[in-house]
Structure formats: structure tokens, C-alpha cells
Amino acid sequence: MKTKILILALAAFCSFSSISASNCIDNLFNTASRMPNAEKVNLNSFVLGLLKPFSSELKGIKSMSIIDAENISSKDYTRFEKIITQCDSDGYETVTSSNEENEIVRILMKIEKEKIREIVIISLEENEISLIRIKGKIDPNQMQNIIEDNA
Fold first, then answer.
1. What is the DSSP letter of 44?
2. pLDDT tens digit string along 41-63?
3. DSSP 99-116
4. Which UniProt keywords apply (predicted)?
5. By C-alpha distance, which of 13, 19, 43, 32 is closest to 128?
6. Count of other CB atoms within 10 angstroms of residue 93
7. Taking the model in full, what pTM does it have?
8. Where are the alpha helices (DSSP H) in the chain?
9. How far apart are CA 49 and CA 44, in angstroms?
10. Cα separation of 41 and 61, whole Å?
11. Hey, which residues does 69 pair with through a beta bridge?
């Protein structure tokens, strides 16, 4: 009986620790999407599947979420700043991080089995927040080719 409880507690702890890494990112997206002036675009795998014949850059992308909220209050700016700075990015690699006067930018990637599974772009300015989240199974070589073609 004790071993069953111990195994159950260990399983709960492991699942919580893996979920908590993305909780701050999820929290950030949920908070921004609830802003009254937020513009949201979600592209699921069905919509992206319709677009793939016209764009080879979309290969491997399963979903995209874009949120943009302009004219945010200083209170909202402070709240978002706190979420971003306290966010534990376990599971994500920080590609770029910039903290300038009243502007925070982060680009994070989650890589599993040599494939990019998720890209998160966060841009917080004094009066605007923009968030982009791309999920899928993207080949890093494909990403490099896209960067080179558009540079």
C-alpha cells in the first residue's frame, strides 16, 4: 500500500514539474488574450494544412497563435513584466533576450529529439504586448534556410 502511494505521489510530482515549465507561458498567453483590446489569431492544423501547398515554410508547423494588445495600461505593463521576468523557462532554450528601457523581448525554443517543437516570441513595450507561439515538429535546417532566404 505504501509503495502504491509513493508511486502515485512521484507520478503526480513528475507530471506537475513538466506542466509547470509551460504554465508561465500559458499564463502569459491566457492573460494577454483576456485583454479587452486584444486581437487574437489561432491557426490550427486544418487551416495550416490548406496553406501548406502554397508555402514550403509551413512544413512541420501544427499550430500558430498570435496575440497583440495595444494601448495597455501601466498596471497591465507591470503585470506582464512580472510574469515575463519571473517565468521559469525550463524546457525552453532562450534564443534571444533583451531588456531595454520599457521594452522586453524574448525568443524561446523548445527542442526535443533534434526537432523544434515550439517557438515562443514575446515582445512587451510600454503600451503594447505581442505574443507568437508556433508549435510543430520543425527541422532546424528548414529554419536556417528560411532565415537565410529572408536575410
1. -
2. 999 888 877 777 777 777 788 99
3. EETTEEEEEEEEEETTEE
4. Signal
5. 32
6. 11
7. 0.78
8. 2-33, 45-51, 74-86, 140-149
9. 9
10. 15
11. 38, 129
